[in-house]
């Protein structure tokens, strides 16, 4: 008899602590239920789901290439479904412990290939239908921004992790007993909004690569305004990326000071405590 995990177990074991709002609200509820159905069958591996997501992405691109209004709607639906399946592979890997380094590479490369293929089909098909060069320029911009977002995200993650590792190394082992004060409630409207989003697992970076792709390949085809929605999505993506870059720049500017403080604190912690009699001798000597 096939034993299935409960939805609560799947949520606890596979949901990320923070994720894109599109994923949290529009993908995870369906993906978790599909994972519950397929997780007991070990032959359904994360790489198999990645390949299935690629096939659905190929079908989406074929629909986009057909150019007709209803084909665009079908392409948008298939693109969303391909993203749901793509999210399932990571959940299956975490739930069954079947993730691998090769699987991570496989997933990333197929994601980028799927996006490029759908972009070429969507904007190339509209160019073939209308002859407007604006669709080709939009194709170039969308492809560039998608690659920039994911490459920049990976590099920023590496940079921040490198700074964290250096700070942890400088601090050394933490004291066993540390007093933990009562956390202060969030102050101000911005802090309360941030806290509300995080409680729902929604990251505060509200427009990332996921929202960019969904706007371009789902909202655009559904509304029939593929250039306008791509322009809005590109503007929001660049704005949020600039915000992240500014935050990273500030963090790197303050990093040398933070590192020096961590090293100084670690050095003080390593010094042996002064015995009371030694302290009294020092005072007597100073009085003489």
What report would you give on this structure?
The chain has 288 residues and is mainly alpha-helical. The chain has a single domain (7-171, 198-271), classed as Four Helix Bundle (Hemerythrin (Met), subunit A) (Up-down Bundle), CATH 1.20.120. It has 10 helices and no strands. The protein has helices spanning 7-14, 21-38, 46-66, 69-96, 101-130, 134-171, 188-199, 209-223, 226-270, 276-287. The radius of gyration is 26 Å and the shape is globular. The model has no long low-confidence stretch (mean pLDDT 86).
Q: Secondary-structure element order, as H and E?
A: HHHHHHHHHH
Q: Could you give me the name of the CATH homologous superfamily?
A: CDP-alcohol phosphotransferase transmembrane (TM) domain
Can you tell me the CATH topology? Four Helix Bundle (Hemerythrin (Met), subunit A)
Q: Structural class of the secondary elements? A: mainly alpha
In CATH's first tier, which class applies? Mainly Alpha
Helical residue percent band: over 70%
Main sheet, how many strands, which sense, barrel?
A: none
pLDDT averaged over residues: 86
- The amount of beta strand, in percent, is under 5%
Overall tally of domains: 1
Report how far the terminal alpha carbons are from each other. 88 Å
Instruction: Specify the number of helices.
Output: 10
CATH architectural name: Up-down Bundle
Radius of gyration: 26 Å
Identify the quaternary structure here: single chain
